[in-house]
Amino acid sequence: MLISNAYAQAAGAGGLESSLTSFLPIILMFVVLYFLMIRPQMKRQKEQRAMMDALAKGDEVVTVGGMLGRVTKVADAYVTLDVANGTEVVVQKAAVATLLPKGTIKAL
Fold first, then answer.
1. What is the pLDDT of residue 16?
2. Which of the listed residues 6, 27, 74, 93 has the most CB atoms within 10 Å of its CB?
3. In what order do the strands lie in the sheet with 68-74?
4. Which whole-number Å values give the CA distances from 3 to 9, 77, 101, in the listed order?
5. Do 71 and 79 touch, CB atoms closer than 8 A?
6. Of the candidates 55, 98, 104, 59, the residue with the CA atom closest to the CA atom of residue 78
7. The pTM is what?
């Protein structure tokens, strides 16, 4: 006899408790993922959306492409920027990255 007999083990007393304990690391990982990645991203999106809704004529902005300009006209989805004297550019509202303090363009 080279192979010994294998017998089934008795079922554990805490069946529900042991299955919950085995899923605890996965649940903990999703909670950490939510607080470190998902929640801050949702907060940034909410701030960006509020900034785009608050755009008004005369605001100084920076676009995603790095262009500085003063808002001259605001439509539903587009913003017209005055980037130089007599030069206006139409961009999407989503292309506005940052709202600058008043007088920033003159200081440059």
1. 66
2. 93
3. 87-92, 78-84, 68-74, 60-63, 96-100
4. 18, 76, 81
5. yes
6. 55
7. 0.66
Amino acid at the residue 80: T
For 2-51, what is each residue's pLDDT tens digit? 788 877 776 555 566 777 788 899 999 999 999 999 999 999 999 999 99
CA 28 to chain centre: 22
Residue 63 · residue 81 · CB < 8 Å: yes
The 3-state DSSP class for residue 27 equals helix
The Cα 62–Cα 97 span in angstroms is 6
**Which residues are registered as beta bridge partners of 100?**
60
CB 66 within 8 A of CB 53: no
Q: How many residues does the chain have?
A: 108
Token readout for 73 is 């006209």
